[in-house]
Amino acid sequence: DGGITQSPKYLFRKEGQNVTLSCEQNLNHDAMYWYRQDPGQGLRLIYYSQIVNDFQKGDIAEGYSVSREKKESFPLTVTSAQKNPTAFYLCASSWTGEGYEQYFGPGTRLTVT
Amino acid sequence: ELKVEQNPLFLSMQEGKNYTIYCNYSTTSDRLYWYRQDPGKSLESLFVLLSNGAVKQEGRLMASLDTKARLSTLHITAAVHDLSATYFCAVETHTGNQFYFGTGTSLTVIP
Hints:
- The complex is a heterodimer of chains A (about 110) and B (about 110).
- By secondary structure, chain A is mostly beta strands.
- Chain A is about 0% helix and about 50% strand.
- Chain A has strands at about 5, 10-15, 20-25, 30-35, 45-50, 55, 65, 75-80, 85-95, 105, 110.
- Chain A is globular.
- Chain B is an all-beta fold and about 110 residues long.
- Chain B has strands at about 5, 10-15, 20-25, 30-35, 45-50, 55-60, 60-65, 70-75, 85-90, 100, 105-110.
- In chain B, strands 2, 4, 5, 9, 10 and 11 form a six-stranded mixed β-sheet that branches.
- The mean pLDDT of chain B is about 95.
- The interface of A and B includes residues 31, 44, 58, 92 and 107 of A.
């Protein structure tokens, strides 16, 4: 089955530690995205990538880093510089160009204490 | 930055009733998307609206787009409990592939 997988589903970390969230897709999509969702709020774009080895910052990129070494994979690292990392993180992918909907993974809930 | 506003933010309605959710956005775009999110879950695509006047219907939900007014609506007809969820609209920018999401409308359908 084609789709987007994210792992782990739940992640707990101590403050000051970096953590990497996995996102893999087998939809052959060129574009991939990372969003952050806080309780009762909409999605905010962290980073996106439209092609391998290239990515752009979204509105809230500070404290996060990404890589796009393979078309299928777009891991997100939450660094210790991110002041409020506890949130629900959603990965999405789509075809490039205009008018293509995004398909979302199941999400990773990160809790940092 | 493109702003996307939804209202109402919270909606409690009785089964069998009709209601409309509104999505206003601040810049020119003719590409708007509606998604559904169940509690603790991911987002599921509902509608893709790609031109002024576009109307899409699926079951008890109907979405429309007025690009001149920068407004999309999601109309619920004869609500049922299974429609309880949070609904998001998202606007795509002309620079390509970047989406801005509304704050969501949390819908609860009461028997």
